[in-house]
Amino acid sequence: MSERKWFKGDTHLHTINSDGVLTKGQLVERCKQQGLDFIMITDHNFNSVKESYYDGELLIIQGQEVTGENGHVNIWGAKVPAEPPYDLSSKEAYKKIIEACKNAGATVSLNHPFCSKCGFRFDIDDVYCDCVEVWNTVQHTDNMVNRDWWVKQLLNGRRISAIGGSDYHRNYAGLDILAHPTTYVYAEECTPKAILAAMREGRCFVSNSPKSTRIELTCGNAAIGDSVPFKEGLEVEIKIFRLLPMHTVTVYNNDKIIFNKKYDRGTELLAFNCPVEQKGFIRVEVTYEFKGPLKKVYGVAEKKFLNSNKNFLPPFIRAFTNPIWFE
Length: 327
Known about the structure:
Blueprint: E1 5-13, H1 24-33, E2 38-41, E3 53-54, E4 59-61, E5 63-68, E6 71-76, H2 91-103, E7 107-110, E8 131-136, H3 141-155, E9 161-165, E10 182-187, H4 192-200, E11 204-207, E12 214-219, E13 222-223, E14 227-228, E15 235-243, E16 247-253, E17 256-263, E18 267-275, E19 280-288, H5 292-306, E20 316-321, E21 324-326
Parallel strand pairs: 1-2, 2-4, 7-8, 8-9, 14-21
Antiparallel strand pairs: 1-10, 3-4, 5-6, 6-7, 10-11, 11-20, 12-13, 12-15, 15-18, 16-17, 16-19, 19-20, 19-21
């Protein structure tokens, strides 16, 4: 087996073939400028990438966002085995097309499931998926609802990989949101098969951007996405790179907080160990909070541009990991 490495990418992108403003070529060049290793182009109900390919600098993975009023689903790595318009009239119709995509060899992700504007209109607890887009576009309160649903699934023993995607169509209000967030994948090589396999196995963490906070979570030779036999005395090692001032690091052992500290000063590297107290899983978050007038301004902007219907701003995530499992 090859040694795994971290590869960074954007899993959710649009071109002029659906409702974006860039051609496929323009989008690819922009992603190269961001320093990404891989991308998924996921136009709405359109197959912009006929087959995954590597152009010598960037891996472009075939994708499509199966889109209906009742919810959005990203399909990666294989063509949707149907032609639009799709029947997406019911939960059962979604399950049928998802199952067909799975059987065709695709990796399936539920997109922004609790988005105030275009989330799912039915219960998704029993809908098959390999991944869930916990972090969609710039950070906002709907993402925290996505996060809470994902954690609930983990606590119930359902191993779904959490990912992020910029959902890039265009710049908004002067902000370039491409690769915000960025999904880091711990894969054997930068190929469609290896990247998608690692994503399905939960070998990823998500950060605000390609140059933002990074997290490494290990237990001996085990890394994010691995399973470790539980025994007394186990510890995990956490490394946080590019931690910003006034950001908080929290380590969870299942739903129990085993480490929580707010750092007044930033640092290029924070490293520490935590004991594994119980079977289940350990995951890490780095969060921050808006204060004072900035909090009010962001709340107004969120309602205007993201159609959020929330009346409060919770702590937002700067970076988070999928778990290491302890059995």
